[in-house]
Amino acid sequence: MANDVLPIKVLSVHVPLEASQLPREESASNQPAGEVILRIELEGSALVLSARLNGKKYRRALKAFDVAPASSRLVLQGWLHQAEDGSLEVRDAGLQVSAESDSFPADQGSELAVGADR
């Protein structure tokens, strides 16, 4: 039983981010109009994910964060899939701004949860 593999189609991803890690409009302007592509690397490993976000919603989330940066957290959310080329990508990605008390503690890492239907 310990070696059983559970086949799944998707993982739910919630990654707390620091605002300083994210490109602002100036650096995101070289992306195709209407989208921002983030590349996320898991520290200490070779795992790199790409996340495609709606550019308008991305900029709106950054502006909302800038209103109260001391009491807010940024969280990248989406569904982890394997792309056609074999790489991993976060689909339906979004950047959420939440109150500090509603989000991950600063010392806690990312969360991966099993998803069934995406």
Provide an overview of this structure.
- The chain has a six-stranded mixed β-sheet.
- The chain has two helices and six strands.
- Helix content is 14%, strand content 42%.
- A hairpin with a 5-residue loop joins β4 and β5.
- The chain is globular and about 50 Å long.
- By secondary structure, it is mainly beta.
Task: Give the key terms.
42% strand, 6 strands, mainly beta, six-stranded mixed beta sheet, 14% helix, 2 helices, 118 residues
Structural class comes to: mainly beta
Total number of beta strands: 6
Shape type: globular
The percent range for strand residues is 35-45%
Order of helices and strands: EHEEHEEE
Strand numbers in spatial order across the main sheet: 2-3-5-4-1-6
Estimate the mean pLDDT confidence.
Answer: 79
List the helices and strands and how they pair.
Layout: E1 10-17, H1 25-28, E2 35-41, E3 48-54, H2 55-67, E4 72-82, E5 88-99, E6 111-115
Parallel strand pairs: 3-5
Antiparallel strand pairs: 1-4, 1-6, 2-3, 4-5
